[in-house]
Amino acid sequence: MAKVVVYTKENCPYCVMAKNLLSARNITFEEIRIDLDESKRDEMLRLSNRRTVPQIFINDQPIGGYDDLAALAKSGNLEGLLKT
């Protein structure tokens, strides 16, 4: 099973949409709240070179944010990433 990690913060509509998309597809993920731990914000920035949330990783590969995740899902490429 693929390892999926989603960096989020409270009151972020795109974070909610990303989590809903993953949940609707029965994809298990780990949520890391960057607003609760400053070191996790730094970790996200180091791993993705992006400051915005959500930041989504599949098997330690940066996917991007919600729009990127939705595009992968729409194109059918998300399933391929989850199988690796």
Describe the structure.
Helices cover 48% and strands 20% of the residues. It is an alpha+beta fold. The protein has one domain: Glutaredoxin (3-Layer(aba) Sandwich). It has a 4-stranded mixed sheet, sandwiched between helices.
**Quick check: average pLDDT?**
96
Strand arrangement, major sheet = 2-1-3-4
Number of domains: 1
The CATH topology, please? Glutaredoxin
Please, how many helices? 4
Low-confidence stretches: none
Reported CATH architecture: 3-Layer(aba) Sandwich
Bulk shape: globular
Which secondary-structure class do the elements indicate?
alpha+beta
Residue fraction in strands: 15-25%
Within CATH, the superfamily carries the name Glutaredoxin
Top CATH class: Alpha Beta
The count of strands amounts to 4
- Spell out the helices and strands N to C: EHEHEEHH
Largest sheet: 4 strands, mixed
Compose a concise summary of this entry.
The protein is α+β, with helices and mostly antiparallel strands and 84 residues long.
